Amino acid sequence: MCSAYSTVAATKLTLVEVITSPARTAMLQKMLSEYKTQHPETEIEVISLPWGQAFEKLGTMMQSGQVPDVVEMPDTWQGLYASNNMLVDLEPKLKAWPNTANLTDKTLDMARASDGKANMVPYGFYLRAMFWNKKLFQQAGLSGPPKTMDEFVADAKKISALGNGISGYCMRGGVGGTNAWMMFMTTMNGSPAFFDKDGNSTLTQPGAIKGAQLLVDMYKQGGAPKDSVNWGFNEIVSGFYSGKCAMLDQDPDALIAIKNSMNPDDFGVAPMPVGPSGKAYPTIGYTGWSIFKQAKHPDDAWQLIQFLSSEANNLTWSKFVGTLPIYKGAENDPFYHSPQFAGWFTELNDPKYVPLTMPTHLKGWGYFNSVTVKESTQETLLGENDTTSMVEDWAKYLTKEQKAWMATQ
């Protein structure tokens, strides 16, 4: 009798999402409803954590024993949870999954980025490119987007000179601003390497400091809105589509809101401007699905991840949330043939652009990315610190982290 009941008792899975918006959660719930139709014995509770506090809130959940079965795992946290040995090794599961053969090499590389073993299935890639407002450029007498960093600075000045509260660049001074700082610093430094062979941070090299100074000067000299010191994702995107600022470095996920709010003829998406070396290093990020070792239902969790990561579901999800998909040949889908996507595919295919992967293998990267960079850049932008001191502090922290990681290899 008992065994008969246990076979029909509902399995309750918990899924935590951390990059949240009402539309995105609704889309996820729609996909999960389809899964529940196929698996009527499964219940799924979705816990949506707002991105600004998600890092701390997930940590609190874990400490109090509320361990989710499936977690949306950003690349920036992967190293922390992997190095603490908290994530399920998915290699045996990927070996047995027929879809693995059709995943791009980049997808599998990123799944294994932290310790050489797959501990997540990425669902897509976020690659930075430069949105530009054609109308504001025209008003400032500019004919096209900046191709170099010097042009980027000059264009921002010309556009800011239009007045009426218009600025050249939508700066992200709040949570999530790390990408821009690292991208500008490596591009001005002419190298995507975060460390030398001995594990010392390269961020204090003269070119890298120039890249950080470029952003500080742009803010202080009025090239970015004054309140952008506190801006997160929603503020920079609305700043762009409302015409408050004319340039925005962002991933394809920003395209969703921008397309809904602007005439497609009024904006373009260009590759990131190149630095003195003739190269640019647009950041490439990724997010995926992971299973914690303490999860109550790891096998059911893997079944759910396979469903979310199927070719059809991944394409639907990628189009909706604005990522580049994980399957070979996905770029042939007509959706990706709009002129707006050309900037991203140029970056993926032209050797001038080398996608920059953050050092997410570091245990302390999640904290550095979510807390340290936000607090220290805000101080510097507001004149409470100087750029060189800020960058030296970053380099000291990252060098210590890298040497600790090297010692375990």
UniProtKB/TrEMBL annotation:
Primary location class: periplasm
Cross-referenced InterPro entries: Bact_solute-bd_prot1 (IPR050490), SBP (IPR006059)
Pfam families in the cross-refs: SBP_bac_1
Top-level taxonomic group: Bacteria
GO cellular component terms, semicolon-separated: cell envelope; periplasmic space
Residue ranges crossing the lipid bilayer per the database entry: none
Subcellular locations according to the entry: Periplasm
Family, similarity comment: Belongs to the bacterial solute-binding protein 1 family.
Protein name: Extracellular solute-binding protein, family 1
Organism whose genome encodes this protein: Erwinia billingiae (strain Eb661)
